[in-house]
Amino acid sequence: MLSIKNLTASINGTPVLMGIDLEMKAGEIHAIMGPNGSGKSTLGKVLAGHPSYEVTGGEVLFEGQNLFDLQPDARARAGIFLGFQHPIEVPGVSNASFLRLAYNKKAEAEGRDELDPLEFDDFIHEKIKLVAMKEEFLDRSLNEGFSGGEKKRNEILQMAVLEPKLAILDELDSGLDIDAMRVLGDAVNRLQRPDRALLIITHFPRILETIHPQFVHVLSGGRILKSAGKELAVELEERGYDWVLEEAAAGGLR
Amino acid sequence: MTLAVTTSFIAELLGRPRPAEWEKLREAAEARLAGRELPTTADEDWKYTDLKVLGGISFGPSPRATVDLSGHLLPEMVGTRQVFVNGHHAPHASCVSSVPAGVRFLPLSIASEACHSLGSLGNGEEKGLFEDLNTARFEDGAVILVPRNMKVALPLHLLFITKADTPIAVFPRVLVVLQRGAELELVEEHHGEGTYLSCPVVEVRVGEGAILRHERVQRESDEAFHLGMLKAEVAKGGQYHSRTLSFGGRLSRQQPWVRLAEGSEASLDGLALLEGHQVADTHSFLLHAEPHATSRQLHKCIVDGKARTIFNGQILVAPRAQGTDARQQSRNLLLSESARVDTKPQLEIYADDVKCSHGATVGQLDPEELFYLQSRGLNADDARNLLTYGFAGDVLNRIPVASLRRSLRHLVMARTQADSLGDLS
Questions:
Q1: What is the per-residue pLDDT for A204?
Q2: I need a labelling partner for B120 at 20 to 30 A (CA). Which of A100, B170, B341, B413 fits?
Q3: Is there a contact between B90 and B65 (Cβ–Cβ < 8 Å)?
Q4: Do the beta carbons of residue A172 and residue A152 sit within 8 Å?
């Protein structure tokens, strides 16, 4: 589904991704882990098309299509979803009407029927149960005045509404208490399907107690230093990141 | 030369016959106007708002006219409306059948005995030129009097419509008095077509513990000039909440002046949506005269084309106004390279135990916000339009009268090209 080859990117002329290789197939869950400032969030933003980053080399194919031929909105309509670490507040636009707008733009692109406000009302009331969101958050302005946890809930709600093929969740667990993390982790698990791939970007291994990746990658200094199975997450939980960095340095990677 | 033209401008307006009522007030205003000229941009208060163009237009007296009210009526206020056309009361267009007994909601022309406070607000401050012009020549207006402890359930609607085949000047006048503990919701709208000058003066007295919510909608014609004055005095523990929404006018100026007594509250919000060559100016003055009063001011402008907006927000905290809590924010969204914003907070604080803050932002849409919306599948244009709408929608969503809120949302959606995005409420 996703094939990243030797991807390099920079921001304001400063290189931040130094050659990333990653292959993801439908149905797989991958975790990208790493210390702060390692470039994990950058990878998510570059894949989603954030305008501040310049892709300086390499290739990314999404379902065989060159991702960099597509604007951010076209990537979203093609099935890429980025759950933001810090979701943006948009005053003046209600959450429900924004969700319906996003849903209908995607439906339109896929040639499906758009939903009118009444139909969407039924649809969304099923979806909010999944993330245990209170109804009042539908009527409020998009993310405005939401707590960190409520914003994350809203991100997963958007994922449930947009049904992406590839979901990239950037620091889903930041700002969440244990209970909220479990609710959202469970929601993500229930959304996982054989035709969907998940990329979990996280600093702390904690979220991986609920969402179980088959593949774990450690990213630091803009490179993937180590890739392994889910046992790597356990090891990182116990030992931190330093040993991976040292191992990589000894191997001449740094 | 300028002097000759401007002198004749005021003299010409005063040249029309003086209406019979309110003789003393009018004489006093005329005396103050003697020898006055239109302000120029050399005057600090009018630095960015050039009135020269006014001097070149001859505004005649305003004839009575009939108008089509469809499109102006709001369902909540069908039976609580007073309509004025070209400054004259329009009895057949008005309907006050739902106004509760005890509330006076009358044209000034038949309510003179109730209006001893007309022209008396403002703490003995110097009166503005356009305020005096209004006092000297207003034809009619409205009086609203809500007796003690009466909470009026239905909003009242004041509709000022101007229809000018040739340039005319109108001087709408409003006096609102809420006695102790009274509550009222008031919608004041200004509409029109053609070239005209409208100089409304609205005087508000909010009694002890009384609450007035005041929506002010300026939808004058594209060729109109609107120079409005609002004066409000809020007594102890009273609340005055106003929202001024400016969409029309070639040149408009809003001058709210609010005096806060002990423990009172005011919010003074504004939204201006400008395009083409429109100029919209807001010069506000908030006087924290006594202790423990709270004021909130959020002023938002969306400026497109070669339009220009001016905000001058003065807050004065008097020496005895300890415990004042004042917050002011001016936020401006520029949609074109040639749009222009001049914003200036002006805080004068003479008390030491106060919380005062102010802030001003002028800018384009935030790229992070655009990216967020695009990452959900909205194309760049839709994302821009949605954010622009949201910037205004934030103010509109707080309008308590549902039909007014809806109609202004549609207006703003059309102006921000967000109407293709469906219902965003």
A1: 84
A2: B170
A3: no
A4: yes
Rg (CA), chain B: 21
Q: Is B33 on the interface with A (CB under 8 A)?
A: no
Contact A90 B389 (CB under 8 A): no
CB distance from B375 to chain A under 8 Å? yes
For residue B221 the two structure tokens come to 């014609």
Buried b (16+ CB within 10 A) or exposed e, A127-155: bbebbebeeebbebbbbbebeebbbbbbb
With CB atoms and an 8 Å threshold, state whether A93 touches B374: no
Query: pTM for this one?
Result: 0.89
> Is the pLDDT at A242 greater than 90, yes or no?
no
| Residues of chain B below pLDDT 50 | 1-6
pLDDT, position B340? 95
CA distance linking residue B163 with residue B62, whole number of Å: 9
Cα dist. B63→A83, B86, B89 in Å?
62, 7, 12
Residue with tokens 């356990």: A234
Q: Do B383 and A162 touch (CB under 8 A)?
A: no
Closest to A79 measured CA to CA, from A21, A2, A154? A2
Pairing mode, strands A215-220 and A223-228: antiparallel
What does A26-38 look like in DSSP terms, one character per residue? TT-EEEEE--TTS
CB within 8 Å of A129: residues ≥ 6 apart: none
How many other CB atoms sit within 10 Å of the CB of residue A96?
22
Please give, rounded to a whole number of angstroms, the shortest distance from the CA of B103 to a CA of chain A. 35
Q: What is the pLDDT of residue B114?
A: 54
pLDDT of residue B425: 64
Q: Does B381 touch chain A (CB under 8 A)?
A: no
Helix H or strand E encompassing B211: strand B211-219
Angstrom CA distances, B420 to A75, A101, B383, B388, B415, stand at 22, 10, 12, 13, 11
> Per-residue b/e over A178-191, b at no fewer than 16 CB within 10 Å?
eebbebbbebbeeb
Residues 392-421 of B with CB under 8 A from A: 392-397, 421
Residue B206 pairs in a beta bridge with: B178, B234
- Using a CB-CB cut-off of 8 Å, the residues of chain A touching B393 are 91-93
Sequence-distant (6+) residues with CB within 8 A of B141 are: B84, B107, B108, B172, B173, B174, B175
CB contacts < 8 Å between A and B, how many? 97
CA angle B378, A185, A122 (to 5 degrees): 50
B225-234/B251-260 β-pairing: parallel
Residues in chain A closer than 8 A to B271 (CB atoms): none
Note whether A84 contacts B: Cβ–Cβ < 8 A.
yes
Q: How far apart are CA B370 and CA B384, in angstroms?
A: 7
Residue with tokens 């982790």: A185
Residue spans of beta strands (DSSP E) within B276-424? 279-288, 294-303, 308-317, 325-334, 340-349, 355-363
Which chain A residues are closer than 8 Å to B378 by Cβ? Answer: 73, 101-102, 105
Partner-chain residue, chosen from B376, B395, B421, that has the shortest CB–CB distance to A76: B376
CA–CA separation, A245 vs A233, rounded Å?
Answer: 15
Tokens for B370?
A: 């655009």
pLDDT greater than 70 at residue A96:
yes
- pLDDT (0 to 100) of residue B122: 66
Distance CA A180, CA B336 (A): 43
Inter-chain touch B372–A88, beta carbons under 8 Å: yes
Best probe of the A interface among B333, B376, B387, B419, by most A CBs < 10 A, is B376
